[in-house]
Specification:
Its cofactor is heme. The protein is α+β, with helices and mostly antiparallel strands. It is built from 18 helices and twelve strands.
């Protein structure tokens, strides 16, 4: 018995010693790496006040100039590591994406829906992303061109007919919403569409408001509207199932999907992803088209060059009597470069949030588990090393493809926006009909940028539109 006891003690001692050595080794491993340089600001609030008391881009650029391309801060209640180089963005979003997860405030997840694909990673995310990508692939969206043209022309006609100035960004949001509805549901019954739009507007209004359940607040109203949206979408889904319609739109893809276990998506999963797609499609697309109009307005010579390119297509289509084709939208090199440069200059998605799921080492620095990680797309897009004279609007810089990972207007990696081709198609179609049939002028003297949260021209670019006489279109 004594021998057995001694052996047990020896085994226990050795196992304890090995455990201590392992911990010590791990400790030494992580002690080799230090946190990135930077400031964590005041207790609790960090540097949130500094961020929101100025243009956020100035905040990030000042930090980068002082600390370099990787630095730490504390904003919105979270310790963060900021990354301002193409290599670092690729590290987080592509090559080592498994070490990071998407992260959003719970208040926003509650409004969009917890099953929306951009809240997830792994198998579920991959399956849903493929579904959305297939729904928005070129071979699918090219069939939507006649309907998108109808929406664009109707919108422009209504602006011109009003004879008054409009908030360009707000009107572009409505246009992008209509295109989003088209891509998800195809042609929808008017009653359903009006109910969807009414309640979606309330959710949209409350999305960036202070999250509180106090009755009457924008957030509480948004929560109630989101519940109504669930019921409305439930009715639409049930109707589609009862009619056994095999539509090729996004809803059709969702309804026909089965995973490897022959499991279908639940109605709640479908509803959350519909709302998610609408959110992803609306503000970003509306923002970039608004910026395109501003940049063209501010450069008459560029506007005339774009108009000449579009008039050649207009004339080919018998004075605009024939609809645009997919091939024609692929043959607008200057207009396409204008859209690309607008995406770079405005950098609608200035950064993205990730969270380290383990302790991560990058270039000798430690990114602790649980810390937020933010690749700064705007800093990269405005880096003179990659884009000379970055504050100048110069579409010619896209005559040559940008260096890899220096231009990421739709993100990068498995969480990049799957609807980027639809967004660009929508912009090209609207520009075509705008410059060939209309004129516009900005009616506000205010310059600068406002954030809500996406960057848009001040006051949403108030502008007046009018129909151009036929004899002036040549």
């Amino acid at each position: 018995m004594e021998i057995v006891s001694i052996l047990l003690y020896i085994i226990l001692f050795l196992s304890t010693l090995l455990s201590l050595l392992k911990k010590q080794k791990n400790g030494i491993h992580f002690k080799k790496f230090k946190l990135p340089p930077g400031s964590m600001g005041w207790p609790y609030v960090g540097e949130t006040l500094q961020l929101y008391s100025q243009d956020p881009n100035i905040f990030f650029l000042t930090k980068q100039k002082r600390y370099g391309e990787i630095f730490k801060t504390h904003i919105l209640g979270c310790p963060c590591v900021m990354l301002a180089s193409p290599e670092a963005a690729r590290f987080v979003l592509v090559t080592h994406a498994h070490l990071f997860k998407p992260t959003y405030p719970k208040s926003k997840e509650r409004l969009i829906g917890p099953h929306a694909l951009f809240f997830h990673r792994g198998g579920y995310h991959a399956r849903l992303r493929r579904l959305v990508q297939n729904s928005l692939a070129p071979q699918t969206i090219k069939k939507l061109i006649p309907d998108i043209q109808g929406i664009a022309v109707s919108t422009l006609e209504s602006w011109a007919a009003s004879g008054q100035g409009v908030n360009t960004f707000y009107e572009m949001k409505k246009l992008s919403f209509d295109v989003g509805i088209l891509s998800i549901f195809g042609h929808m019954e008017r009653g359903f569409r009006e109910m969807l739009e009414e309640n979606y507007r309330k959710v949209d209004k409350g999305y960036n408001s202070f999250p509180t359940n106090i009755p009457g607040t924008a957030y509480q109203q948004a929560i109630l509207a989101r519940k109504r949206l669930n019921r409305i979408l439930g009715e639409i889904i049930s109707s589609r199932k009862e009619k056994r319609l095999l539509e090729k739109d996004m809803l059709g893809h969702f309804l026909s999907f089965k995973d490897e276990n022959d499991e279908k998506l639940s109605d709640e999963q479908i509803a959350d992803n519909i709302i998610g797609v609408l959110f992803a499609a609306q503000d970003t697309t509306a923002s970039v088209i608004t910026w395109v109009l501003k940049f063209l307005h501010d450069d008459p010579q560029l506007l005339e060059a774009v108009k000449a390119e579009q008039m050649a297509i207009y004339d080919t289509n018998n004075g605009g009597k024939m609809p645009l084709t997919w091939e024609q939208t692929r043959s607008m090199p200057l207009t396409h470069r204008v859209v690309m440069e607008s995406l770079r200059m405005a950098s609608i998605i200035s950064f993205t949030f990730r969270e380290a799921v383990v302790d991560v080492e990058y270039k000798g620095y430690l990114i602790p588990k649980g810390w937020k990680v933010m690749p700064l797309f705007r800093n990269i897009h405005h880096n003179p090393e990659f884009f000379p004279n970055p504050q100048e609007f110069d579409p010619s810089r896209f005559e040559v493809a940008p260096r890899a990972n220096t231009f990421m207007p739709f993100g990068n990696g498995v969480h990049a926006c799957p609807g980027n081709e639809l967004a660009k198609l929508e912009a090209l179609i609207l520009i075509h009909h705008l410059v060939t049939n209309f004129r516009w002028e900005v009616v506000s003297s205010e310059s600068g940028i406002q954030y809500g949260p996406f960057p848009v021209p001040q006051q949403g670019l108030p502008a007046r539109f009018w129909k151009e006489p036929k004899q002036s279109r040549q």
